[in-house]
Design brief:
The protein is mainly beta. It is 6% helix and 45% strand.
Length: 344
């Protein structure tokens, strides 16, 4: 368990911390006469901290150190703002994002339930212990922690009331129930829907250009084991978002991911929306990289910042809004393990 004390009101603070070009969020919660704190990376799709349920997905680690209670109001630059050996756990620039009262609720070896009452962050949050999914980022750690605000909620004021029920919260968004298209896509339990889409990338080593399927409607499993169902409406939204960014002159980067031994750098130059056999996006672009990429079956995988809602019928998250951080070249893209499947 992270915190020694349960079921009492204590102080908390969330800092945005930057040092040497790296930014993370640090959650400090009073534990007796000191602060326990955890740091969560702000990078890629882990970049959002929001009070809306299901938005925040921050991965980080617990510090072995503690802090004095003076950190509850500290802002500014520490004396060693670029890091170093003389002050290893406090260098950098700190900005308070939120502060207020916290109540530590139920705890197990796997997670801690925390209720927050701040100006920006409120009610029930979960700090969940996971195996280290990012060994190249969190070096030397067997475990990491996921910070999120789940849809199963209880108000801060009711945190200590054991008779108060937990409620499922749906955010105000366009997709609260099954898409009208879901019925057309439903198959018998355990039966996959086939498709003639070719998901391998095509390379032109001489022109240094590539093309491939970036996303398609269906249900995917991400690298954390979560199910996401891309509706036809979401594919159209995703296509229009990227097309608008390209028209405005913005750059959508392409590179490798999942620790592949190849290095591949490029940019998207065109996105196309296709309707058959299912809605899907074809991405075209240019690259600087090894020409031997085309001797293996590489594909494309978007890295999004998503807003999603939970769909009970399909037991899956349904995205309805996305910002495209980049698209990655991967050996096992999500579209190779797609199925559209109703869970009874």
């Amino acid at each position: 368990m992270i915190f020694r004390s349960n079921n009492q009101e204590v102080d908390f603070v969330v800092h945005e911390h930057s040092v040497g070009g790296t930014i993370d969020y640090q959650l400090s919660i009073q534990d007796g006469d000191e602060l326990r704190f955890l740091s969560f990376l702000r990078t890629g799709e882990m970049a959002t901290i929001s009070d809306v349920p299901n938005i925040t997905r921050l991965f980080g680690r617990e510090s072995e150190d503690t802090r004095a209670l003076t950190w509850l109001t500290y802002q500014g630059m520490t004396k060693n703002s670029e890091g170093g050996d003389d002050d290893p756990h406090t260098p950098g620039v700190y900005k308070i994002l939120d502060s207020g009262k916290a109540i530590v609720g139920h705890q197990t070896e796997e997670y801690s339930e925390v209720f927050l009452s701040g100006e920006s962050l409120s009610d029930r949050w979960i700090i969940r212990k996971l195996p280290n999914l990012f060994p190249s980022v969190f070096k030397g750690s067997d475990d990491i922690y996921l910070l999120w605000k789940p849809p199963v909620q209880k108000k801060y004021e009711k945190a200590l009331n054991s008779e108060e029920p937990y409620n499922n919260i749906n955010c105000a968004c366009p997709v609260n129930n099954a898409s009208s298209k879901f019925a057309e896509l439903t198959k018998e339990e355990g039966v996959a829907m086939g498709s003639t889409i070719t998901t391998d990338m095509l390379f032109n080593p001489e022109a240094k250009t590539f093309e491939g399927v970036g996303a398609a409607e269906g249900t995917w499993i991400d690298m954390f084991g979560n199910k996401y169902t891309y509706t036809p409406e979401f594919i159209v939204h995703n296509y229009e978002e990227q097309r608008s960014r390209l028209a405005a002159g913005e750059i959508i980067q392409v590179n490798t991911h999942h620790e592949t031994e190849h290095e591949f750098e490029g940019r998207i130059t065109e996105v196309q929306l296709f309707q058959q056999p299912i809605k899907h996006i074809v991405v075209k672009g240019t690259y600087n990289g090894p020409v031997d990429l085309d001797d293996r079956q590489f594909g494309l995988s978007y890295e999004y910042r998503l807003r999603s809602v939970w769909n009970e019928e399909f037991q899956s998250w349904v995205p309805f809004e996305a910002t495209t951080d980049k698209i990655s070249v991967v050996e096992r893209p999500a579209c190779k393990v797609c199925w559209i499947n109703k869970v009874k």
